[in-house]
Structures are given as C-alpha cells and as structure tokens.
C-alpha cells in the first residue's frame, strides 16, 4: 500500500538561505551557497513535486532566519478529521535545540495560523522539552520519534498526549545524522530506508524490527548520498542521489526514482526532506488514535 500522506507540502522561499553559524558538522560560514544556483535547485524540487501531482505551498522567507528554508523542522502537522471547530487542522510547533533557529518559530506559527492550523507546543523560548519535527514520522500507525541530538526524550510523552497517538522513540547517536529524517525514510506500509548506524544498538534493532522489509543503508550510503533525506509521492521517490545498490532495491520493489540536485542545501546540513514539510499527515489514517496517548518503552518489540 502506498503512503497516503506526502502529497501536500510547505516549502520556505530560499531568499534568506545562507550560512551564518555552524550548528551541525556540514556548516561552515567560510563556504557559502551560491544563491542563484540554490534558488534554481529549490524551484526544480518544487516543480518536480507539482509535476508528480503534489501540492506545494510557499512560506515567505524571514531575512534573519537563514535556516528557515529547511521547512521540515518548523512543526509537525496533524489533521484531525473527527474534530470540529478550531484545532481540526493542527501543528505542534518545533522548539529548536539551538537558539539561532528559534527566531523561525513565530514566523512559522503566523503562517500556519493564517492557513487554519491551530498551534501547540511541547516547549518554547528555551523553556521545556526541545522538539524538532524532522525527528518525527508516521509509520504503520505509530509516530516514530528520534531523540538525542535535537529532540529531548521528554518530548515523546508530550507529543503522545497532545496528538492522542502511540509514540515509539529511537535514540539517535550519530553526530552526522542528528535528525531522524537523515537516517529513516518511510516508503510505504511495508518498506522504509533505514540506516542502523545512526542509532544506538537497541534502537537500531527496534527500528529494523518495526519495518517489515527495510532497505538497509550503510553509514557511507546515508551520509555520502543523503538518500534517506528523500520524499515519496505515491510510488515515486524523489532523491538527491541514489547509490546503485539502493537503486537496484527500489527498482525491485516497484518504486520509481527521480533525482533532483539540491547540493547547495547540503552545505547547510539538509536535503530534499529537510526542504519540505508534509501538510497532510492525518489522525485515524496515518496515525492510530490512542486515548490520552501512549509512549512505548524503548526496546518493546513491534507488534
């Protein structure tokens, strides 16, 4: 069964994209992206998604927020079709680990609220749990959340309660795969790209157990090609690069691969998934509703 989410995205205009500081291993203020090439790559990605039938909405750039272009980390959208009134379209705003990125949140909240999303928080303004939405994905009815470098483990309980879902936490330990979206990419209900090297041993085993048929990535494949940081529209995987071995697996599984060069954005530590935020994750369809929410203890096997 193909993913039902991933057909409606928000992307942030790249006008303000630059590297002013270093908060991940890829950033170097001495190596700046080419703004013309970055815009061309951004437009090519948006155009590719639209050509595949996905809707793309554009969020204006905030001049003082050079990392806001990585829209995936602005907030976690959850549509609540069984609700009425305010909150039917909701978003849990990110509480960024690094203060340099917290300027993005008020601007992102204003855009979400102007588009009918009710905003909530697990922490804000440097107080409370940190949560970055590049660490959260629906998979097989659960919300899989990476914690460690950017998201606090404490946030899992708050996410479960806020959304009324079951949360499965995995601990990220690799400094170069500091968000879940650099090491895990759901493809459909049975398959996902998974890089075990990003996690501690217990979490890697848990994640591989959760995915019925994982496409396992080596550390070199995940970091060298950014292939886990891809998006899926139906049976098409939009990727920045694809190692031959991974391409062969995807071909065998019946996926089409479209390569889109976003190398200017690799300088800031993000790729295709980081540049896009899905606006169509839906409770009761992509995430099972659990009254009061529930966090699975680390190490609990997948059902």
Written overview of the protein:
The chain is α/β, with parallel strands linked by helices and 303 residues long. Helices cover 22% and strands 23% of the residues. The chain is built from 7 helices and 18 strands. It has helices at 35-51, 104-114, 154-163, 201-210, 219-225, 244-252, 263-266; strands spanning 8-12, 55-59, 75-79, 89-93, 118-121, 123-124, 127-128, 136-139, 142-147, 166-171, 184-186, 191-194, 213-216, 231-233, 236-239, 256-259, 277-278, 294-296. The strands form 6 sheets. A 4-stranded mixed β-sheet has the order 8-9-10-18, with helices on both faces. A 3-stranded mixed β-sheet has the order 2-1-17, with helices on one face. A 3-stranded mixed β-sheet has the order 3-4-5, sandwiched between helices. The two termini are 18 Å apart.
Number of strands: 18
Give Rg in angstroms.
Answer: 18 Å
**In percent, how much strand structure appears in the residues?**
15-25%
Largest sheet: 4 strands, mixed
What is the H-and-E element order? EHEEEHEEEEEHEEEHEHEEHEHEE
| Helical residues, percent | 10-25%
Structural class: alpha/beta
pLDDT averaged over residues: 96
Q: Could you say which overall geometry the principal axes of the C-alpha atoms support? A: globular
Number of helical runs?
7
Strand numbers in spatial order across the main sheet: 8-9-10-18
Distance between the termini: 18 Å
Low-confidence stretches: none
